[in-house]
Structures are given as structure tokens and as C-alpha cells.
Amino acid sequence: MSALAANAGTGFAVAEPQVAMFCGKLNMHVNIQTGRWEPDPSGTKTCVGTKEAILQYCQEMYPELQITNVVEANQPVKIENWCKEKKQCKGHAHIVVPYKCLGESACLMGPLERDLWKRVSRCTDIHGTDSIRF
């Protein structure tokens, strides 16, 4: 796993911020310092159905990153240890397509950083026009 050039407040990130949902189970998010998937810390949040709700959840999980957008990941991932509500975890694995939590900084990155983040983001340039940044 390659280190990313983003500082999350407590050290360098080793993974990009992502969230995953599987209805009937607690939401999962990537711990960006360890790269591991972890269940919702409140023990109460489960799947949501709108992009706005996913964005809000990303903002809750990564408050220090100023998340402004979410995009569905390009590939599914297998995540272990999904928990039911109240953190009853039984080691079940599910394959899901997670959501990448994107911040304003993704729109301002240089080519090397953009490559490290491996993301495509819709950004508004300084003239107010929408553009895709690679």
C-alpha cells in the first residue's frame, strides 16, 4: 500500500477516505492512518440512499479533511467483519462498491498528488466552470 501525500491531522494518511454500506449492517469507513475498514463508531449508522446522505456521512467520518464530494469507487472490495447494529460483529464478509470521500484539496493537487490519490473529481475552476480533473 502506498503512502499518500495528505496529512489527516494525526499523521500521514496511508489510505484514501472511503465509506461502504450494506443494508442491515453498520456502515464501514477506512481508517486513513491504518488502511483498515472499521465499523461506524456510534454503533447506529446503517445504509443511506442518497448522495447527499453519503456526503454527510463522509463529513462525519473525516471532519478534518473538508470533504465536499463523493464518487462511487471503480471496483468492488471485499470487507470483513461487518457488524449489526450495536456493534454485534460476527466476522461476515461482503463484497461492496465503496464511496470515495473527496475534499477540496483534490481539485487543487498537482499531477503527482493526483496520481497518488487515484481519483477523478468534478471540480469548479477559478472561473466557475465545471471541469473534470485527472
From TrEMBL:
Keywords: Membrane, Transmembrane, Transmembrane helix. Residues 13-105 are annotated as: GFLD subdomain. GO terms for molecular function: heparin binding. This is E1 domain-containing protein. InterPro entries: Amyloid_glyco (IPR008155), Amyloid_glyco_extra (IPR008154), Amyloid_glyco_heparin-bd (IPR015849), Amyloid_glyco_heparin-bd_sf (IPR036454). Residues 13-134 form the E1 domain. One of its GO terms (biological process) is central nervous system development. GO terms for cellular component: membrane. Gene3D superfamilies: Amyloidogenic glycoprotein, heparin-binding domain (3.90.570.10). It is a single-pass type I membrane protein. It comes from Scleropages formosus (Asian bonytongue). It comes from the Eukaryota. It is found in: Membrane. Belongs to the APP family. Residues 105-134 are annotated as: CuBD subdomain. It holds the Pfam family APP_N.
